[in-house]
Amino acid sequence: MDELLNRRQLLQRCGMGAGALGLAALLQEERLLAAGVDPLAPRAPHFVAKAKAVIWIFVNGGQSQVDTWDYKPELAKRDGQALEGFDRFTGFFANAVGGLMKSPFEFTQHGQCGKWVSSIFPNLARHVDKMAFIHSLHTESNNHSPALFMMNCGLPRMGFPCVGSWATYGLGSVSRNLPAFVVMSDPRGRGLPKGHATNWGAGFLPSVFQGTHFRPQGDPIDNLNRPKEMNAAQQRAQLDLLADLNRVQLAVNPQESELAARIESFELAYRMQSAAPEALDLEKEPEHIKKLYGLDQKHCAHFAAQCLTARRLVERGTRFVQIYSGGMENQQSWDGHNDIAGNHTGFALESDQPVAALLEDLAQRGMLKDTLVIWAGEFGRLPVAQKSGKPGRDHNPHAMTAWMVGGGVKGGVTHGASDEIGHKAAVDKVHVNDFHATILHQLGLDHEKLTYRYSGRDFRLTDVGGKVIKPITG
């Protein structure tokens, strides 16, 4: 029996069919349709890329730059003195503002570049000649959630795509069996970063470009194993039927990028059932590599596993990996409002050996030259004490330190500077938009050309700003 069409269907198919086809062609030409049937198909960069992948160590909570990488001997000279003209509302605890506070850690010089590094990073200090330090990075919010959104998504409010999503949208995926963008959070029960999955969301981009969160405990991904009552042939037949039904709808509504994303998500999940278990099996690594990362050390084994997993994922084609050091609240992360000495000592002990091992491992495999490794959090911390039994430091959006290694950036260099006490960016200031422009540049993407039309406007990661930090890009 022939299909009967009602009036609405007849108008839709006959009156709008040609228009829909024309619109789909235009959208595809402008890269506004999610890459046609396969939204994750590899795409050429705007120019020759220096980095193929990114591993971002996100220092969640906001590390203190003056206690880690930004040596300020002036703080020791003026320890305890009041900071004249200081706006006590810069941080969050206006009634707990104390005087200037020297770092509780000793700084010593390392490498041929002579970089001063805090004593809490004995392993990472050996790699300073590979690092490009940025000491003049600043942001727009002193509150964790908007600052996290700013550092991840380029704007201090939710609803916008993150860096990993923009990179995946611009370049597609190399691997057909693993997610292009993976996120790992704190595995010690300390929670997700504030803002949760919004930090790795795709915003208004098609959802296929959002980060895949690997659960920190138990199975990293739901349904990674096929149901016991189903064999491989049955599962394949089920997926084929589902894909056929979805493609019928996609043909009628070619502009619905979410439908194409849904088809690809089912297929990726199927392929991951065979590929992901192998990629996540750290037992396949030789003992000397496990020991290098610190898998045999209780204090850092959890973070070591994540760093080693990141290397294995990138080795197999994953484009962007983000690892969060620290969890949700205050002392559960680098957010050292109280006892900055104890807080930073503990989190450095967890991360120092694994991240240093990651750099060494990537280098010895020849992967560091095209893998960009980033160390950065959402903001810095103030040079004044936050008064408590064991003094800490409050939030500081005006100055923070980040570093990059590999992926074509210069090693052993420092760009910009904060003032003599580390309070504000002072020389060659770097906005978060500049930071993002530089990451995209190393991936071969022009941040001004990587756009997506939404709600009548062409959006980009860097909004209406952003300049590539040329002195560190090689």
Give a quick summary of the entry.
This protein is of the alpha/beta class. It has eleven helices and 19 strands. Strand 15 (417-418) and strand 16 form a beta hairpin.
Task: Describe the 3D structure.
With 474 residues, the protein is of the alpha/beta class. 31% of the residues lie in helices and 16% in strands. It has helices at 7-15, 17-29, 73-77, 144-153, 163-171, 232-252, 257-279, 287-293, 301-315, 340-364, 432-442, and strands spanning 53-59, 97-100, 107-110, 115-118, 131-138, 181-184, 212-214, 320-325, 371-376, 380-381, 384-386, 395-396, 400-405, 413-415, 417-418, 425-427, 430-431, 452-454, 457-459. Strands 1, 5, 6, 7, 8, 9, 13, 14 and 17 form a nine-stranded mixed beta sheet that branches. Strands 2-11 form a two-stranded antiparallel sheet. Strand 3 and strand 4 (115-118) form a beta hairpin. It is globular and about 80 Å long. The N and C termini lie far apart (68 Å).
Question: Could you outline the blueprint of secondary structure elements for this entry?
Answer:
Blueprint: H1 7-15, H2 17-29, E1 53-59, H3 73-77, E2 97-100, E3 107-110, E4 115-118, E5 131-138, H4 144-153, H5 163-171, E6 181-184, E7 212-214, H6 232-252, H7 257-279, H8 287-293, H9 301-315, E8 320-325, H10 340-364, E9 371-376, E10 380-381, E11 384-386, E12 395-396, E13 400-405, E14 413-415, E15 417-418, E16 425-427, E17 430-431, H11 432-442, E18 452-454, E19 457-459
Parallel strand pairs: 1-8, 1-9, 5-14, 5-17, 6-7, 6-8
Antiparallel strand pairs: 2-11, 3-4, 5-13, 9-13, 10-12, 15-16, 18-19
